[in-house]
Amino acid sequence: MPKNPKILVIRFSSIGDIILTTPIIRCLKLQLHAEIDFLTKPIYKDIMISNPNISEVYTFSQFSKTIDVLRTKDYDFVIDLQNNLRSLKLRLILGVKSYTFPKQNFKRYLLIYFGINLLNDHIVDRYFKSVEKLNVYNDKKGLDYFIGSSFPKIDFNTEQDYICWCIAGTYEQKKLSVTQIKNVISKIQLPILFIGGASEKEISFKIFDSIEKENCVNLCGETTVEQSAYLMKKSKLVLTNDTGMMHIASVFNIPIVSCWGCTKPSLGFSPYLPNIKSENIITPLSKRPCSKHGQYCRFQSKGCIKEIDENVILNTIESLLK
Q1: H/E run at residue 195
Q2: Within the chain, how many helices (H) and strands (E) appear?
Q3: Who has greater pLDDT, 80 or 208?
Q4: How far apart are CA 157 and CA 234, in angstroms?
Q5: Is the pLDDT reported for residue 3 higher than 90?
Q6: Which domain holds residue 279?
Q7: Is 240 helix (H, G, I), strand (E, B) or coil?
Q8: CB neighbour burial string for 166-204, b if at least 16 within 10 angstroms, e if fewer
Q9: Are 68 and 117 in a shared domain?
Q10: Is the pLDDT of residue 151 over 70?
Q11: Considering just the CA atoms, what is the radius of gyration of the chain in Å?
Q12: Which of 64, 266, 270, 305 has its CA 20 to 30 A from that of 167?
C-alpha cells in the first residue's frame, strides 16, 4: 500500500447515488490518509465541491479531454462506484489498479420479479465491499453533505417551526398525487415549505391552485440543491418521496417520513442511518418493488404510491412531531 495514495472515485449520477458515496470517501480519506479526486457529470459537480474529503472534482465535458487530464494525475487506485461500460472504458485506459462494487443484478431481479430478497443490505454496504482489500471499513457515521458558507439568501424564515416537503421524483410513479398532498396539508397546522426542481413546478401549481392556507410556501424550481438542503436542515421534519433529497435529508438529525410505491427500501436505497424517529411509509399493494428505478408499476399506470392512505401519512407526521 503506497503512503498517502492518490485515489480516483467514480460516480456519474445521480444526486442520491452520489451522496451515498460520501461514507466511503470519508473512510478512504481518514483511514488511508489518501488524496481523493471525484469524477462525475457536470450537473452534479456542485454537490461534492464543498466536501473537504475531496481534493478535486472532475467532470465529463468530452471523454478524450477528461482522459487526458486524469492521465496526468498518476492515481494509485480507482474506486469505480458506477460500474458501467463508460467507467470500465475509463479504468482500462487509465491502466491502474481498480476496484468495483457488486451491483447484485441477479438478486435484484429475483426481488423485483419473484419477491425473493437475497439482498438484505444497503447500497452503502455494497460500496464498502469494493474496498475490503484495502482494509477500509465503514465507520458507521452516516452520510456527508457540506453546505457552503456563502450562497444566496432564501426568502423564508427558517427560525420558525416548519415542515419541509420534497415533492420531487424521477418518475411520476414515484410521486404522491396532488390529492394525497392536499388532503394531508389541509390538516396540518405547522407551516409547510414545498421544495423540488423545475419539473415539479406544474404539480406544485396544482397543489397551490385551490388551497387556502397562508402557511404553505412554494419554492419548487426556486432553490438550488444547497439551498434546499439548508431548508431541510432547519426544519422540524422532512416529507419526501424516494428521491435524492431524501438522502441529503439523512445527513441531518431530523425525522424523515419517506413514501414508497414502485421502489421499496428492500432494494437498498432507503434513508441511510437517519434520525431514529424516521419512518418509511410503503404502499399497501405490494411489499416488493415493481421496477428497478420506479419507472414501471405492476398495478396502475401512475404508480402504486398513489394508494398510500393520506391518513397514514398524517398520523405518522403527528406522532413524530410529539
Answers
A1: strand 192-195
A2: 12, 11
A3: 80
A4: 10
A5: no
A6: 163-321
A7: strand
A8: bbbbbbbbbbbbbebbbebbeebebbbbbbbbeebeebb
A9: yes
A10: no
A11: 20
A12: 266
